[in-house]
Amino acid sequence: MNLAGIDVNLVVALAALLQERSVTEAAKRVGISQPAMSHALARLRETLGDPLLVRVGRAMTLTPRAEALAPRAQAVVEELEALLAPLPSFDPKTSRRTLKLSATDYVQLVLLPTLEEIVSREAPGITLHVLPITDQLAAERLRDGEADVAIGRFDHEAPALDVRRVALFRDTFVGVARAGHPTARGRLDLSTYAELSHVLVSPRGTPGGIVDGALAQMGLARRVALTVPHFLVVPHVVASSDHVTTMLAHVAATFTALLPLTTFELPPELDLEPIGMTMMWHERTHEDPGARWLRGALVRAARPLAQARGARTPTDKKAREPQGPARPRAGLVTK
DNA sequence: CTCTTGTGTAGTTCACACAA
DNA sequence: TTGTGTGAACTACACAAGAG
């Protein structure tokens, strides 16, 4: 049987007719006129090759075929109603959902404490599943449903039509050395900075970083004494040695509060572009209430970072969507 | 590609038949 | 007389085909 030729409304009419056992009552139930329901019954009789309802005096009675069809027709209608029902609402106070966030360890460090505070306060029942950034493109992971939201630097990823982006915050570079370091204090000139022994964070183990690239453009090089794959170990190394490092200011602020560290200004000639952190999500989850709430919570968690030195808030730009669950429609976001 | 025309379908109102 | 189902006539709408 070719289902494309079947009017779904006939199934609805069938269920109503078999339940009400009356053309008039079935018509009221479905919301059409009584003759229209009578015509629907005629079409059903023709399609199924069975009278379905036969008149017995003033009442209508079901044929054996109709008796057999009744529960199944009702089940199909209930399934259709469930299929076409609007999106389930998301109440952060009661939801037990798991929301998945893909983020670099830098983002996790600077954003998670505030985010977790918001989650604990507003959505205590949800589980936040934080996934590391992998070699796989973030857009693909979002597309595959591995993550609801991804945050990081996505400069290397070409914009995709089905993935939305919004700038969250920016961060600038500062120098970090142990408290009481004999040289690294205040603002260093370029040659003094280059002569220090540095710790380089290289997630992929490759030599050279942003700083080395900037120095090379000026015909200079620095001495890299130690290369590590994760930046979290760097503050501990720097705190207990004369090595220095160059890291993002938000991270430096976190560690100078915990370890005997001090920050210093980088030489002005070392013109390092601030790093922009971007939030991405797939079109598939754009209208999902839970994912919307998470995006709004992330924007709020990022607000103190966005308002800090060298940062820019999403509201400065044209992306206004992720403000929280109250916003019914997305604002303008870069795709 | 757009507009017009013809066709089919499903809705409505109105009228009527039938049974209690 | 009343309640119910059915048929006829008409209307609205969607869709396909053809013309320009």
Task: Looking at this protein, list some descriptive labels.
DNA-binding; about 325 residues; five-stranded mixed sheet; disordered C terminus; Arc Repressor Mutant, subunit A; D-Maltodextrin-Binding Protein, domain 2; transcription; alpha/beta; about 40% helix; 3 domains; rod-shaped
Give an overview of the whole structure.
- Helix 1 packs across helix 4 and helix 5 (105-122) crosses helix 11 (289-306).
- The strands form three sheets. Strands 4-3-5-12-6 form a five-stranded mixed sheet.
- Helices cover 38% and strands 20% of the residues.
- It is rod-shaped.
- Mean pLDDT is 80; it is low at 310-320 and 322-335.
- It is α/β, with parallel strands linked by helices.
- The chain has helices at residues 8-20, 23-30, 34-48, 64-83, 105-122, 138-144, 190-195, 210-217, 234-239, 249-256, 289-306; strands spanning 53-56, 59-62, 98-103, 127-132, 149-152, 163-171, 173-178, 197-201, 223-228, 244-248, 261-264, 275-282.
- The protein folds into three domains: 3-84, Winged helix-like DNA-binding domain superfamily/Winged helix DNA-binding domain (Arc Repressor Mutant, subunit A, Orthogonal Bundle); 98-171 and 275-334, Periplasmic binding protein-like II (D-Maltodextrin-Binding Protein, domain 2), CATH 3.40.190; 173-270, D-Maltodextrin-Binding Protein, domain 2 (3-Layer(aba) Sandwich), CATH 3.40.190.10.
- It binds a DNA duplex (20 and 20 nucleotides) through residues 7, 9, 22-24, 32-43, 55, 57-60.
